[in-house]
UniProtKB/TrEMBL annotation:
This is Phosphatase 2C-like domain-containing protein. Coiled coil: none annotated. Pfam families: PP2C (PF00481). PROSITE patterns: PPM_2 (PS51746).
């Protein structure tokens, strides 16, 4: 037997020193989980942190909104599923401002669909309202109804596409061969429909009128809106506008139980709907809104992208009296007085608050809101804030990922881990003055 021999020269002392220099700023962490497993991260100098955070979060500023959207894990399967909108609409009576956060789950298709369609639906409906009702007669509840109807119409369109393609009575009559043939014959269309039906998106949006006398907040899901108000004394106060639609909200879990027979103990299980989904209200997630035969016979292959077959069967067995996920949003109206008060609005996906919990900062919802508004309020007119630091949403994100703790911020930004170590985070800070 002939062996191939490879001769490697020993590294020189200079090369050894260079190698040590390259790794001297790398550290490891167990993320507080204990055990032997460790993950590597790169300690960044303070001077580089804001620039890196700005780059990774796509921080941008418009005339009235600062925004960031952040997911540091670069693995394809864990790419950021948050989307957002910042728009100004020239409508009868002046320019309306529309901002929204869409927090997708289980994929990108449904959240992309919502992101593309919802603003245009709201704008068209609002324009029709403004053309039919004189400005002097425009009641806040008229606008609230427009917003609610637009959201429900969009969800209905997802469900209608399914039922047009595969009516319930026809599905029950088909054998497996007939069903497979029906799907294969129009597979591209079915792939689009079924993907939207097995994914979902929450919605949190704000709409303000041209004179900034009114703001409407619509919520469907577990994002949060906080209104900041600066008094004449200069002190900022925070008001949480919306309730959060998840099973940790007792009123939501009780609502779901009231809507289903007492025998369905699993309709809320382990603080999730059917033991599966954290948000209790969302667009999409149609498989949790229609009879289980759709899941068992039609949706199973798409659900198996992230659920093993035995779990798909388990969840399908719990779908007895759908729907379990609601598409009914809550709409809140607030009267504004920008001539007397300085006001700001913070919209954030649920990942922002979750990150504080992950960093062992235990705050109540109100304490969290006070922290956010206080931080933004301190910097909203700061003459020393220039460049990157002038983005108020970036200020909040920096606080959440570690604040002045350079090591924690570095870890959250550079951790070398294949799975997500934090939820997607999107923040919009809107100024009304």
């Amino acid at each position: 037997m002939v062996y191939n021999i490879v001769n490697l020269q020993a590294a020189t002392s200079t090369e050894n020193l260079r190698a040590l220099e390259e790794v001297k700023d790398f550290c490891t962490t167990d993320l507080g989980r204990g055990g032997k497993e460790r993950w590597t991260y790169h300690m960044l100098p303070e001077a580089a942190l804001d620039a890196e955070l700005h780059r990774m979060s796509n921080a941008t500023s418009s005339t009235f909104v600062d925004s960031v959207t952040f997911q540091p894990c670069a693995a394809y399967a864990d790419l950021n599923q948050d989307r957002y909108s910042i728009e100004e609409w020239e409508l009868p009576g002046g320019v309306w401002q529309f901002t929204a956060i869409y927090d997708g789950h289980c994929g990108h298709d449904t959240v992309n669909y919502v992101h593309k369609r919802l603003p245009s639906i709201v704008r068209t409906s609002l324009q029709a309202l403004l053309q039919s009702v004189p400005t002097t007669s425009l009641k806040p509840e008229f606008v609230s109804e427009v917003l609610c109807t637009a959201v429900r119409h969009l969800d209905q369109s997802i469900r209608s596409d399914l039922l047009d393609f595969l009516p319930h009575d026809r599905l029950t009559q088909m054998n497996d061969a007939q069903l497979n043939q029906h799907i294969l014959h129009r597979y591209s269309e079915w792939n689009t429909i079924s993907t939207r039906c097995t994914q979902g998106s929450t919605v949190l949006l704000a709409l303000s009128d041209p004179l900034k006398k009114n703001v409407w907040i619509l919520n469907l899901g577990d994002s949060i809106a906080v209104l900041g108000n600066r008094s004449f004394s200069g002190k900022w106060s925070a008001t949480i506008i919306n309730s959060v639609h998840n099973c940790h909200n007792r009123s939501e879990s009780q609502r779901i139980r009231r809507e289903h027979p007492e025998s369905e103990q699993a309709c809320v299980y382990d603080n999730r709907v059917l033991g599966y989904l954290a948000p209790t209200r969302a667009l999409g997630d149609t498989w949790l809104k229609v009879p289980s035969i759709y899941t068992r016979r039609a949706f199973a292959p798409h659900l198996q992208d992230w659920l093993p077959p035995h779990q798909v069967a388990q969840y399908a067995s719990r779908i007895l009296t759908p729907p379990y996920i609601s598409d009914l949003p809550e709409v809140y109206h607030h009267s504004l007085d920008v001539s007397q008060h300085e006001l700001l609005l913070i919209l954030s996906s649920d990942g922002l608050q979750d990150l504080y919990d992950n960093n062992d900062i235990q705050l109540s919802d109100q304490e969290m809101a006070d922290r956010w508004v206080g931080l933004v309020g301190r910097h909203i007119h700061s003459a020393t804030d220039m460049g990157l630091q002038s983005n108020l949403a970036l200020r909040l994100l920096r606080d959440a990922v570690g604040g002045d703790n350079t090591e924690l911020v570095s870890r959250n930004l550079t951790l070398e881990m294949e799975d997500k170590w934090m939820d997607d985070i999107t923040i919009l800070v809107q100024r009304f003055r």
